Amino acid sequence: MSSEIKKNLKRRFTTNRIETLVDGIFAISMTLLVLNLQVPQIPSPVTNIAIIQYLFSLIPKFYVYGLSFILLAVFWRINHQEFHRIKKSDNTLIWINVVWLMFVAMVPFSTSLVGEYGEFQSAELFFHFNMFFIGIIAFLNWHYAVNHNLSSIKWSKKSYNQSRNIYLGLPFLSILAMGLTFISPSWSSMAYLGIYLFKKLGKTEKNRVMNSNRF
User: Fold this and answer.
1) How confident is the model at residue 39 (pLDDT cuts 50, 70, 90)?
2) Closest of 113, 211, 114 to residue 155, by C-alpha
């Protein structure tokens, strides 16, 4: 491989295009979630009772829709905050984000699958695996940026460990949810309520020593 090619592979880029792509994919994915909710064709005569009964029958789908929408919002917020610290990118970081967005774009499908067949373990497992890969690749994105001098700040060992634990929170909750499918598939997604605990841990980021020596 020529030195020019090696130089191009190591070239640093701005993160603007990545952030634009991320915003676009999230906007589309969050919008597509609502397609899982369809207005029925209720046979005449239409009555308030019939409409209310149908809305009650949609409660499981409303739950999955709301959960998926909030999780996507959390992912987007984490990525948005992350790129306040990541000021440079390279080819590897770009492809990590592309693969990550592939799983993000799959959320409307996995949500629809659970909305229709949430009582079955296989459908719930597919959704949880989707969440797991989103979480673990988000961690890899942060880990790669920190360890390849793409971050704009210096990390102490303590702050690095704190962030690592926060990023691994979603994969941990996804694995917990997978385990719960063996007990009650329909209730396994309740594991993601634990994300609020990791949100509280995220507040410790404000106490980081921004200019500490990077280990």
Assistant:
1) confident
2) 211
